[in-house]
Amino acid sequence: GTGAARPVELQAYVTEVYRLAPLVGLDPAIVVAQSALETGWWQSPAWTDHLNPAGIGITGPDVASPSWESGTAAARAHLVHLYLYAAGAIPAGHPLEPYVPLDPRYDAALSAGRAASATRVADLAGHWATDPDYASSIARVGSRLFAER
Fold first, then answer.
1. pTM for this structure?
2. How far from each other are the two terminal CA atoms of the chain, in whole angstroms?
3. Which run of H or E residues covers position 145?
4. SS3 content of the chain, % helix, strand, coil (to 5)
5. CB-side exposure of 56: number of CA atoms within 13 Å?
6. 132: burial class by Cβ within 10 Å (0-12, 13-18, 19+)?
7. E strands within the chain?
8. Does position 67 have pLDDT exceeding 60, yes or no?
């Protein structure tokens, strides 16, 4: 394995991503690869202490991470946040609507004009992450994560 911390919560996170992402048009493999990248293969303090799957709400070096109560809740928050970037605001009746409150940065991201700002993975650079090679990094991690064993 990857030496991931909190493996029970990680399994719950991955299971929920794979259940929910396809329902809303997001590729679960990309979501999980982004999480692996953002959490250092689920070993970072943001993951181990807060179940933060993707650096959500950590807007600077002195900003504390928000916390989630379970891997399932973390998956739902990640998908809400990523959907906002990829597709736009979440409308009433949408499968992600019940989970919007799990994303502490939803309103801030909406106010900052992030809705539909990243319709391709490459567009996350400069929006979700400052790394200009962010998409390549996600792809590289995904290649490792999903390599045939």
1. 0.88
2. 11
3. helix 134-145
4. 55, 0, 45
5. 31
6. exposed
7. none
8. yes
Which tokens hold the place of 68?
Answer: 């989630």
Alpha carbon of 26 to those of 2, 19, 86, 130: distances in Å? Answer: 24, 11, 8, 22
The span from the CA of 83 to the CA of 128, in Å, is: 12
Contact of 137 with 33, CB cutoff 8 Å: no
Instruction: State pLDDT tens for residues 110-143.
Output: 999 989 988 888 787 777 777 778 778 888 888 8
Cα separation, 73 vs 122, in Å, equals 26
The residues that bridge with 129 in the sheet, in sequence order, are 125
Tens of pLDDT, residues 2-40: 589 999 999 999 999 999 999 999 999 999 999 999 999
pLDDT at 3: 84
Q: Which amino acid is at 107?
A: D
- Cβ-contact 54, 35 below 8 angstroms: yes
**93-128 burial, b for 16+ CB within 10 Å, e for fewer?**
ebebeebbebbebbeebeeeebbebbeebebbbeeb
pLDDT band (50, 70, 90) for residue 148: low
